[in-house]
Recover the amino acids of this structure.
C-alpha cells in the first residue's frame, strides 16, 4: 500500500488542511480578540504547526516514492522563496513567540 493510500494519512491531511484554513480565516480577526482569545488562537496555531511538523516527518521517513516526491516538491517551492522546511517552521515559531510577547 502506498503512503497516500492509507486512510489515516488521508484523514490527517484533510484535517490539517481544514484546521489551517479555519485558523487563517480566524487569524484575520486576531487584533479584535481579547487577551484570552489571543492566547487560545496562539495555542491552536502551535498545536496545528506541531501536527504539521509530525505529518511532514512521516513523509520524510517514508520509503514511498510519492511521499518522497511530495517532500521534494515542498523543498523546491520553499526554495523559490529562499527558505527550507525547517526555516519555515522556525519562522512560524518565532512569529507565535512574538504574538505571545505582545499579549503579556
Amino acid at each position: 500500500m502506498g503512503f497516500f493510500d492509507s486512510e489515516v494519512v488521508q484523514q490527517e491531511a484533510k484535517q490539517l488542511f481544514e484546521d489551517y484554513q479555519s485558523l487563517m480565516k480566524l487569524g484575520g480577526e486576531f487584533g479584535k480578540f481579547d487577551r484570552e482569545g489571543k492566547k487560545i488562537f496562539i495555542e491552536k496555531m502551535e498545536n496545528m504547526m506541531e501536527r504539521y511538523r509530525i505529518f511532514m516527518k512521516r513523509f520524510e521517513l517514508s520509503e514511498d516514492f510519492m511521499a518522497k516526491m511530495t517532500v521534494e516538491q515542498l523543498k523546491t517551492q520553499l526554495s523559490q522563496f529562499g527558505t527550507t522546511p525547517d526555516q519555515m517552521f522556525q519562522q512560524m515559531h518565532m512569529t507565535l513567540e512574538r504574538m505571545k510577547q505582545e499579549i503579556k
